[in-house]
């Protein structure tokens, strides 16, 4: 028997079906609410609103569980590669050796960008934020690959997926190289995804550059940990833009912009800036914890809190351990790690953080690893974007294939003035 929820309004009772996901979460299907009652729901920030059914990622914020296609994140972080995880997210199953080799082959062989794209980088100011550059260049792929814009053609989508996965590291590395005035390198197809990216970032044409395998492994794990996170701000953006049947390149370009903000993917940059400010002001973490607690002070502890995780963020546990490992092997000591550890320790003892269930999130320690790997701070959100790309692709593809596909179009409660007449300017 179908479970239902009842709503009584103006003396009349309406019944709505309750739907249940495979891991037990339930939702009231209010699709017919407006038609039946004339009412809409009101839920700013989508605190209680499910926007879609999805079989890609599951997370349980109370228990700190994150699964990609059913597989726990810690298992993937330990045993998988980023490309294999991307395949899993996009196509739903772990690949066989042949499928993985084929996917890898296609990605490797699309890693170069069109030579004219290089000239775009001359047009951006030298101090441009790389997220702005990456989003613009990703959007521009729609002009180079006009035969891959049909969202109802599986073959076109397939090639667009290969191209995006292959080219984003090149596009990202170029945004950095240009900012420091170095030559834009070609990708090296003999290397794996992360090693190739690190070589493009830090190698120069003047001498041989060997990528540190510890750095490449750390990057792989970080990319895997960021690869999907169900209906967050940027993923909802990719779906909303894609729901107008807009092509993959443009939809992902929009998602990069959505990720940029400091409350989302920009938080890893904001964390390092916050830790640096604390260090520059004598390292007194108590003072900043007090500031964060003060309702009159807009300051927040960046890298703390999460809309969904109310116990711990499973990704932050893995990243914290990795931060220790990477920083131990690093030649230069990282004073900000000490501050981060102290800040976490002090904050987690405070009732404010305990009561509001605020714990370190994925961004709290990831920036420290990127810093140890020599990434400039403004590239941190770009690293998040590179990691999140397979998730965006998988969610966009799932939307296009959904039997219930329709354009996303929320309603609103209008709070403006009543109807009134236009007043000519001379009478105002
Ligand atoms: N420091 C101090 N207080 C906080 C913090 C924080 N980092 N986060 C939330 N609070 C307080 C907030 O002031 C509010 O208090 P009150 O109920 O008294 O008004 C309460 O906790 C609930 O916060 P909220 O803003 O209503 O919660 P939200 O679910 O809308 O926001 C969040 C989630 C992640 C945007 C927020 O916790 C935050 O701004 N954190 C800092 C930025 C950050 O680290 N973002 C990365 C998120 S993880 C990566 C990603 O998904 O992009």
Which molecules are bound in this entry? Answer: carboxymethyl coenzyme *A
Biggest sheet architecture:
3 strands, antiparallel
**Derived structural class:** mainly alpha
> What shape does the CA trace take?
globular
Number of helices: 18
What does this molecule look like?
Helices cover 52% and strands 7% of the residues. The chain is built from 18 helices and six strands. Helix 7 packs antiparallel against helix 18. The chain is globular, with a radius of gyration of 23 Å. The termini are far apart. Bound molecules: carboxymethyl coenzyme *A (CMC). Carboxymethyl coenzyme *A is lined by residues 45, 232, 263-265, 267, 292, 300-307, 356, 358, 361-363.
Labels describing this entry:
mainly alpha, 52% helix, single chain, three-stranded antiparallel sheet, binds carboxymethyl coenzyme *A, 7% strand, 428 residues, 18 helices, 6 strands
Q: What's this model, at a glance?
A:
This protein has 428 residues and is mostly helical.
Question: Helix and strand layout, with pairings?
Answer:
Blueprint (H helix, E strand, L loop, with lengths): L3 E6 L2 E9 L5 E3 L4 H5 L19 E4 L4 E4 L2 E2 H7 L2 H10 L5 H12 L6 H9 L6 H15 L9 H26 L13 H10 L10 H14 L6 H10 L5 H13 L6 H14 L4 H9 L20 H16 L5 H14 L2 H5 L6 H11 L7 H22 L27
Helix pairs in contact: 2-9, 3-18, 4-7, 6-7, 6-11, 7-8, 7-18, 8-9, 9-14, 9-17, 9-18, 10-11, 10-18, 11-18, 12-15, 12-17, 13-15, 14-17
The structure holds carboxymethyl coenzyme *A (CMC).
